[in-house]
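Work Package 3 (structural annotation) set out to generate three-dimensional models for the target panel prioritized at the project kickoff. During this period the team completed the workflow that converts sequence records into discrete structure tokens, so that structures can be stored uniformly alongside our sequence database. As a representative example, we reproduce one entry of 520 residues exactly as it appears in the project archive.
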Amino acid sequence: MAPTFTPGTPPATLKAGTSWADAWRRCLTVAPEAFREDRVLNLWNGAWQADGRVLPATTPVDGTPVAGPPRLDGDTAHQAVRACLDQHRAWRHVPLAERRARIAATLDALAEHRELLALLLVWEIGKPWRLAQADVDRAIDGVRWYVDGIDGMLADRTPLPGPVSNIASWNYPMSVLVHAMLVQAVAGNAVIAKAPTDGGVSCLTLACALAAREGVPLTLVSGSGRELSQALVRAPEIGCVSFVGGRDTGAAVATAVADLGKRHVLEQEGLNTWGIWDYSDWDALSAVIPKLFDYGKQRCTAYPRFVVQRDAFDAFLSAYLPAVRGLRVGHPLAVASAEDPYPELDFGPLINAAKAKELTDQVTEAIGRGAVPLHRGRVDPDRFLPGQDTSAYVHPVTLLGPPASSPLHHAEPFGPVDTVVLVDTEAELLAAMNASNGALVATLSTDDEQTFARLAPQIRAFKVGHGTARSRGDRDELFGGFGASWRGAFVGGELLVRAVTQGPEGERLPGNFPAYQLMP
């Protein structure tokens, strides 16, 4: 139903040409082989297949219907894996120069359709326009870096004996999943990926269609992780499993690959923390706070926990609260006039209404058990369409002292909820910053270089920033994790290529393995 508008007020509307119907029509035009009027297709055995039961899906932006994933059954997934092995055996013998040329042509096609890919990300996973474009650009630019330097990275290395299987979360379909798939392919492997259940299937379908046209051996299937795991994780044809997601699912994958002795890269969540100790540059902290809320903290490298020296708590609040109060949350495509520029937002919805309710319930429960609410954001109706469904939106919340019984005390919320823990000693600081048995990133803000040099090595995070946020990084920056936040080979830079190729006999890859941990 079309929204109604109050007479005499500027009508809120979608930016011209950005409706889901507009995006879908463009997909049908750009890649008719991969899209039908009523569904997307699966890609396997080198062809687009109209198989799988299509599940209904809605956009988190306003709750209206979008294309759902066509879920395969386990038997069909096994057929897809066997066909992918046949592709792998042929592709691994394609000369490197030709592989590079095909991947480069794919990148040119992705760049040509950059705006459509970004628009699909807005509708499917709720990314604001700026961040959706950045996700596409990082994929393209990152893979170009590998294409330009792949010769040296592959010296004395060969493709794996079987294809690489990718199971990734929904939050970065392009800059994490498509990026990894294309690097794996240029390294000589055929690639199979499961489209995330919660969103991104149309964006991934378009990206894979553009790659398949260039002869890149990609397979894209949808389905229940439980039903497809036998094929995508345990099948003997698979040469490596690459997983990005939560610890519960990751633990099951880790058990399977350990039992099978299979090459693996498992990136899992951790409670990334920002420590404040003997610190005075509050203007710098205030400036970075809004950036930490990009995409509603739905990132594996988000910082949801601040560990603050008690004596500095008042100064911390003076820097933190004005910054968090200025965050802009709303519909990513809602404008006053159809020709207006895209709205400038820090984030839009969470991935779905169920996640929004779960997080809101956790906040309510934490407060009921003693957490102190320091900030609760309010809805700005000017950033939404009149009457739209807003059930997937959660406005920023900050809690002091989450109780030990709350999930917010020990786990990553994956949403715009910050928790603050006060400490009095360095030992307490380190204990609070290491609350989750390993993390991907952490930051310590302290004025004294020697204090940072002494404390940083005791923080159980793969990357520790000195007053600055850390991230996955691009190009030659390495990435991994400690404890339960990472299992298997580290990636980033040359290590990503080494993780999906074979080197000298007896090679020990840098990574976090059951039998050893080896830093680069």
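The chain has 16 helices and 27 strands.
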